[in-house]
Amino acid sequence: FTAEDQFLVVADRGYSLTASGELISFVSTQSNEIESSEEVVFQAGGDFLIENAGTGAQNMRFRGNGVTFSTVGGNMQFDVTADITFDFGTMLINGFGSSAGGRDNVEFTAPDTTFAADRDMLIDATEAVRLGFASNPSIVTFSGVGSDDFPGVRVGAIGNIEIDTDSNFVGTADDFNTNSIAQTTFTAGQLFSFNSANAGITVEAKEGIVTLGVAEEFTHTITEAITFTGGFQNTYSTGTILYDTPAGTFTAEGREFINLIEGAFTATSDGGQAFFETSKADGTMDFDIDTAFMLTSAAIFDVTADDLIAFDIADKTTFAIEDTTTFDLQNFASQLNFDSLDAMTFDFTTDITWNSVATSFQSGKSSISFTTEDVFDLDAGHDIRGQVGTSFTTEAGVSGLYLVDESFRVLADAAIEVKSSTTLDITTSSTQFITQPGGEADISSTVGGNLLIEGSPVDSIQFRGEEEFEFNFENSDLTTSFLNFVSTGERSKVTLDTPILELNDLTSSTITAGDFGSSGSVTFTGTTVDMTIGEDLTFLADARDISSTS
Fold it and tell me: What's the superkingdom here (predicted)?
């Protein structure tokens, strides 16, 4: 069909066009409209081509209760200089080829492409589904409500799915699904947005890569669930990224998981759960964020990988989670790393559980703070290391538990503070809390119940502060070979205030306050002070204030 001007088809009932041998082609220089109160069906034995060759505001519009485009032996191409609009109850676009190689594409090329379905939208191809183009500022929009039998929007390809726009991609549906075997790629110059009012979004490449590249903003607002599954890799490269699941879950799964984010990362789950998971035996999870990271979850937040979980953040980092949180790594040499140039804040209403072989926290310019109203549990098979620009604080509403096979070491430029309303249990071969010399840094710990530091065996426990060192406990039991409390600054002070203080099985212990003439004091206050020391017990102060009250 070739028209010098406009091409218009209007049917009161239905419209059907079948070409069993070759192509179906619509070519015009003006706007094209095909409208029916019922079904619109196009079935081509070969290629299916719609081309609007004009240079003005020439649109292509399809309206019908049901719209079906089907080709069994070629490609399907929609090429329009202005806008493509599909407005229908149910749309089915099939590009299943019997052409040479069986590799057939479904392509939509237009400045703006809009798909609006009252119920369902299904787009399938054996090779690739391509929408939009990068050479012009295009907008691609999907919207569909869905039905009991089908999702609102489904885009499927045995090969690749590619959605490419210099401007915005917006998907709005009760349920949105893309399924490919090889690769699913979304690229947008400005905004990339998924919105689902009642159901969820699934982006899947079963044996390949899921890639989302957005220059400015990447937004998900999903009531029920978001799922990204890359059989090989999940890769996000974007400016600002926002996940919002008011009542559902967010799940991202792949053998490798990479986030390269030039702006801020914000994830909000008001009523559901958030999961990041690698399925590969030595899979890694990497978050490289140029500005701020903020995570808010009213329910469970899980990050699972076998090898590496890394957060590399240039600005302030905030975790605010109201339910159980787990960072879980299982491999022999697994690592959990948090690296931020600014402050890190971890605020949990309930449990926090971290499992890895080695864990490190680094805040180059500011503080690190952990707060939970319940149990704070860090389990490391190797080391826990914290390096902080200013202060390091942990506060557990119920109990603090640190299980470390080797060393637990915190190095801070300013204060170190550890709080727990009941029991603080540190099980490690070597425990060190150290503040940098030259500052006015304090080390303090307040525990409503017992302080228990033990190991099998614990080689050494060292608390070294520039200024005041103070422990306040209801009961204390320190089991170690070597125990050192050191406070070296001017007017330095070592204070242990506990009803019962037991220092058991010590080979030697040194308590030091003051250094090179600096005034200092060592004070033990308690109903019972019990020390069992195999060799040496040394108190070092400025010879003016050494005391024990019991």
Answer: Eukaryota
In angstroms, how far is CA 110 from the centroid of its own chain?
34
The two three-digit tokens of residue 32, written as one number = 């094209």
The closest alpha carbon to 294, from 279, 306, 277, 311, belongs to 311
User: 198-241 pLDDT, tens per residue?
Assistant: 545 566 566 665 655 555 555 555 545 555 655 555 556 555 56
According to DSSP, the residues that pair with 368 across neighbouring strands are: 344, 392
Distance (Å, rounded) from C-alpha 136 to C-alpha 313?
A: 33
Point out the residues of the chain with pLDDT beneath 50: 54-57, 98-99, 134-137, 199, 223, 271, 439, 455-458, 543-550
pTM higher than 0.90 for the full model?
A: no
CB 362 within 8 A of CB 335: no
Handedness of CA 133, 134, 136, 141 (dihedral sign): positive
* HEC-encoded secondary structure of 420-435: ECCCEEEECCEEEEEE
Characterize 90-109 residue by residue with b for buried, 16 or more Cβ atoms within 10 angstroms of its Cβ, and e for exposed: bbbbbbbbebeeeebbbbbb
In 262-351, the DSSP E strands lie at 265-269, 273-278, 284-289, 293-297, 301-305, 308-313, 317-321, 325-329, 335-340, 344-348
Q: Among 116, 189, 182, 125, which residue's Cα sits nearest to residue 155?
A: 125
Q: By the 8 A CB rule, do 192 and 167 touch? A: no
Partners of 164 in the β-ladder: 187
Strand partners of residue 213? 187, 237
Q: Can you give the pLDDT at residue 171?
A: 67
100 — phi, psi (to 5°)?
-60, 120
Q: φ and ψ at 457, to 5 degrees?
A: -95, 165
Q: How many CA atoms lie within 13 A of 265 on its CB side?
A: 23
Positive or negative CA dihedral for 318, 284, 333, 455?
positive
Question: CA-CA-CA-CA torsion for 455, 456, 460, 464, nearest 10 degrees?
Answer: -10
3 state DSSP class of 6: coil
Handedness of CA 480, 460, 386, 357 (dihedral sign): negative
Instruction: Measure CA 18 to chain center.
Output: 48
Structure tokens at 151: 């999702």
User: CA–CA separation, 478 vs 465, rounded Å?
Assistant: 19
Phi and psi torsions of 344, nearest 5°: -115, 130
Q: What is the pLDDT of residue 93?
A: 72
